Amino acid sequence: MSQEMRFVPLEQRLRTGGANEAAIRLSREVWETHRGKWNEVCTILQDKNWGYRASAAHIGADEAWSRLGHAAAQRCNLLLNAGLMPDGSVHPADRETLLRVGDRTRSAGFPTAGEVEPDADTGAGAV
Fewest Cβ atoms closer than 10 Å to its Cβ: which of 20, 24, 46, 98? Predict the structure, then answer.
């Protein structure tokens, strides 16, 4: 699983990075203040690339659905980035993926946490 979709607590990342106790204490206070709020995570529709790359593989609707469910299980909204083609259009594979996920959401509702493996490889994004 990519680092961005692992949802590692900031306190843990600060400790691992050698931050001082004041920074760790502040991160804990901020977490407690906002713990009930939803967060967001960003991910991409192309493999390993935030912008358009002609040779990039694109994820399909099942993988996008899995990422959506995984984000929801972590109390996050999912932002899917489509690297636009040089002419400004959305790649046909990305368009198809987004349309299929939209159709599935309308017919089956939003994915639940039980529909995804918690340790599934869910691609890139931002914590």
Answer: 20
Q: Which two tokens stand for residue 95?
A: 């368009």
> What predicted TM-score, i.e. pTM, was given to this entire model?
0.71
Q: For the residues of 1-60, what is the DSSP string, one character each?
A: --GGGS---HHHHHHHTT--HHHHHHHHHHHHHHTTS-EEEEEESBTT-SS--TT--B--
Q: Are 32 and 114 in contact (CB under 8 A)?
A: no
pLDDT, one tens digit per residue, over 57-112 is: 999 999 999 889 988 888 889 999 998 999 999 999 999 999 999 999 999 998 87
d(CA 97, CA 38): 25
Other CB atoms within a 10 A radius of the CB of residue 58 amount to 19
CB atoms within 10 A of CB 15: 14
